[in-house]
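Data availability (excerpt). The following record was deposited with the supplementary files.
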Amino acid sequence: MTAPLHGLRALITGGAKGIGLAIAHHLAADGACIALLGRDDPAALQCAAAGLGAEHTVADVTDPAALQAAIAHFSPCDILVNNAGTAVSRPFLKHTAVTACQAVLPGMRQRGSGRIVNIASTAGLKGYHRLCDRIARPDG
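Predicted structure:
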């Protein structure tokens, strides 16, 4: 039986540890090819990628050019998991999750499919000025 995500490419930001790494393991178990992006701990990122047989790169998601370059390197992206968190207040279109979505959406639209998962912080429990990428929730 073929794994449900066989042949799909998944990019996980903040994928070196914690929730991002757990998601990467689940997606890999379902057959996805994994690419991890991280910035804080290159050794942990390399170790996590090796354990998954995944591609990886070090990039700061708060740097739009670096984020776009990393995503372009891993293209095509069928599944994007925006897990890397930042505590920087900024206008909506400047948020890292929006930048990442803008980078993968053209390819997803061209292929007619794709999935984007945005991981929220506790800011999703209460609205904060200019933290809209963490506030939007399906039950909000």
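Summary of structural features: Residues 136-140 have pLDDT under 50 and may be disordered.
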